[in-house]
Amino acid sequence: MKLDQRMQAISLILSDVDGVLTDGGIHYDNQGVESKRFHVRDGMGISLWQQVGHQFGVLTARNSHIVKVRAAELNVSIVRQGFVDKLPAAQQIINENNLKPENVCYIGDDLPDIPVMRFVGMAVAVADAAAEVRALAHFTTKANGGCGAVRELIEFILTSQKRWGELVTKYSSRT
Hints:
The chain is of the alpha/beta class. It has one domain: 3-Layer(aba) Sandwich (Rossmann fold), CATH 3.40.50. It is about 40% helix and about 15% strand. The chain is built from eight helices and eight strands. It has a six-stranded parallel sheet with strand order 5-4-1-6-7-8, with helices on both faces. The chain has a two-stranded antiparallel ribbon with strand order 2-3. β7 (about 120-125), α6 (about 130-135) and β8 form a beta-alpha-beta unit. α2 runs parallel beside α7 (about 150-160). The longest helix has 12 residues, at about 40-50. The protein is globular and about 45 Å long. About 40% of the residues are buried.
């Protein structure tokens, strides 16, 4: 199936967190408090994706309070943390939302993402993903993880779905 055909069916993007929505760095202060850096344009992209009626979710092997905070800030209700084996969690999300695998895009960066990427309709790797992940992706972003890769993906799909222009017009016409 051609990439454009795959994109037409997408209504849910599932994303890994570390290495995709962040640059993969995990920072700890002297008290052991963790921090992560999220890119603001990824957040805007997620908001735009949701504005056209699509869903966005995160699926990560780690557990982090920061992920819950960022997801809540972006009104992302699909948040699954602590799943080293991500495929059963992805299948559950798809079933709970009455979707088919072909309606789902998954963006990842490392080996634990491969089973989900093989299962869904559109597999995406960030530019600095592991070689094995890039090799099986239907699309690889130009941006590295944590540097606007999710925004790039969202623009790419919404442009293919002929929805990007309406968003640009909406913001361009504001005075």
